[in-house]
Amino acid sequence: MRKLMALAAVALVVAGCTNSVSHRCVSPLAAGYNTDSLTDCTVPAQFTAADFDWQAGTLTMTVCSEDLYDAVEVNQLQPGDTLVFQGRSIVVQKIEDADGIKTVNGGIEQGGAELMAGDGGTYRGFQLDDHSVYTTLGKATVPVSSELVFIDCGIEPNDPVDTIRNDARGHIQKLGDRSDFNELNTLVLIEGGKITQITRRWIP
Asked: How many CB atoms lie within 10 A of CB 5?
């Protein structure tokens, strides 16, 4: 009798585990690069003109990655699941879908999150002014090519873009109060372990 009761108790536990709801956690995809091996990649970055060591031929920058999410995982999000957004773990209470945008818990202004359908089967996290959400990976010092190309936006949104192919160093050193770069507007192209191009686009 005791054995039968014990077996019945085990059966109840197993049944309870089988019927329990399993919630998923959706996090940004891995960047595909890290600060220890920046060989051939394009990275969003933070730095200032003062972070160039022109004698050594290097740039020390804070490397970031755009927060992209697997579209299949995002489309499967349900209440009770967790979404990692801006470094926070958000428990999904409600999720709305309109025009390719997933709004979680009422959106950014209500402490939630917003994701926009992107390329390659992904969603990107975005914040105010449609800026993407980024994760900081750390600092890296990377050699700068002697043939560095600097593509710089103007001060106003409709200003022409400057493409500096000769003496990028001289141009960067004369930027004055525009000498700060950040992950929202700057992409650094690294080829063969050297920085070959820096592009800054205009943002609000």
From this structure: 9
pTM here?
Answer: 0.86
3-class state of residue 66 by DSSP: strand
pLDDT at residue 5 is higher than 80: no
Reported residue count of the chain is 204
d(CA 94, CA 181): 36
**What is the arithmetic mean of pLDDT over 67-83?**
97
- Contact call for residues 126 and 58 (beta carbons, < 8 A): no
State both tokens at 143: 């050699």
Nearest to 163 by CA among 204, 195, 198: 198
Backbone angle region of 75, left / alpha / beta, with phi > 0 → left and psi within -120 to 50 → alpha: alpha
In sequence order, what are the residues at sequence separation of 6 or more whose Cβ sits closer than 8 angstroms to the Cβ of residue 135? 28, 31, 64, 65, 67, 87
Which residue's entry shows tokens 């992209």?
Answer: 68
Contact by Cβ (8 Å): 66, 124: yes
Q: What are phi and psi of 108, to 5 degrees?
A: -60, -45
On the question of pLDDT at 17 being above 60, the answer is no
pLDDT tens figures, 104-149: 999 999 999 999 999 899 999 999 899 999 999 999 999 999 999 9
CA gap 123, 118 in Å, rounded: 5
- Position 22 scores a pLDDT of 85
Q: Which two tokens stand for residue 69?
A: 């999410």
